[in-house]
Amino acid sequence: MKRLFVPFALAGILTFGFAFSSVAQESTSDTTAVESATSDSADAQSSVNATEDNTSITEVEAAPEAEAEEKSFQQVIKEKFIEGGVEWMSPVLICLILGLAIAIERIITLNMATTNTKKLLASVEDALANGGVEAAKEVTANTRGPVASIFTQGLMRMSEGIEMVEKSIISYGSVEMGRLERGLVWVSLFIALAPMLGFTGTVIGMIGAFDDIQKAGDISPQIVARGIKVALLTTVAGLFVGIILQVFYNYLVSKIDSLVNQMEDASITLVDMLVKHNLSK
Predict the structure, then answer these.
(1) How far apart are the C-alpha atoms of 141 and 124, rounded to whole Å?
(2) Is the pTM of this model over 0.85?
């Protein structure tokens, strides 16, 4: 412990001596430092004042830009909606709301109607082999989706022969396809109606612009700006609504086509199973 204490003591003495000598040297130069400091402080104060003035000017110039950047997307949309004219933008907005509501409802319904057909066919085949048609009917009745509903209708006609099973599957398949396509006609209506409403607002806005020109007797930008702005905003709103709803419509159509293909393939496989089941008897 003493061996460790001696080096630390020597280092402390040397550090204290070095600090004392530096303090002595600084005390001799304090008078000149004070004089130079006063002159430097005056210059620094003037430079600080100039910097503050420049900063205040820059802040004043940047204030409008900051206010413009603070506008959110919702505020911009609201301003453009009002500028486009509530009487023409409101129908377009209604088309968007109703179209999206129907499209979202259809998406949820179609996703819930999706069935794992391979698993269902395997379950039906096992039920036919072990418990017969009644057991297979219980399996399909406890499974949701259009494919299971078609299977149930076909199995209910099994006592009448394979031909009646095929006819029942075809007839009920058409019914299920109609249920899947329910609501699409309204989405397609809003897709066509929204741009038409936007173009109607465009025509009305241009008519208003020409009326202002006729009243003023002069073609100046300030006179026609409002009418042309209304025309352009309503057109853009209608096109945006049509594009958004068209994307949802195409997704729904592709989803329905996929479900219909699954129904057809699974129905053919079911008929083959029933034929094999009859032959095995």
Answers:
(1) 11
(2) no
C-alpha 224/C-alpha 170 separation (Å) is 62
Instruction: Tell me if residue 181 falls in helix, strand or coil.
Output: coil
**Scanning the structure block, which residue is given the tokens 């023409």?**
88
Residue in 187, 180, 193, 178 with CA at minimum distance from that of residue 250: 187
Q: Which pLDDT tens digits describe the chain residue by residue (281 residues)?
A: 334 333 333 333 333 343 333 433 433 444 344 344 444 444 445 444 544 444 444 444 444 444 445 667 677 777 777 776 778 788 899 999 999 999 999 999 998 888 888 888 888 888 888 878 888 888 888 888 888 888 888 888 887 888 888 888 888 888 888 888 888 999 999 999 999 988 888 888 787 777 777 777 766 676 666 667 777 888 888 999 999 999 999 999 999 998 988 888 888 888 888 888 776 66
> Among residues 222, 224, 226, which one has the least CA distance to residue 234?
226
CB 146 within 8 A of CB 169: no
Between CA 249 and CA 271 the distance in angstroms is 33
Asked if 127 contacts 138 with a C-beta cutoff of 8 angstroms, the reply is: yes
Residue 33 CA to its chain's centroid (Å):
67
Q: Hey, is 272 helix, strand or coil? A: helix
What the block records as the tokens of 229 is 């702005």
The DSSP letter of residue 115 is: -
Tokens of 158: 């099994």
CA distance 247 to 255: 12
**Which residue is associated with the tokens 């039906």?**
124
Token pair, residue 97, equals 């709301």
Task: Please report how many Cα atoms fall inside a 13 Å half-sphere around the Cα of residue 26, on the Cβ side.
Answer: 6
**Buried-state track 242-259, b at ≥16 Cβ within 10 A, e below 16:** bebbbebbeebeebbeeb
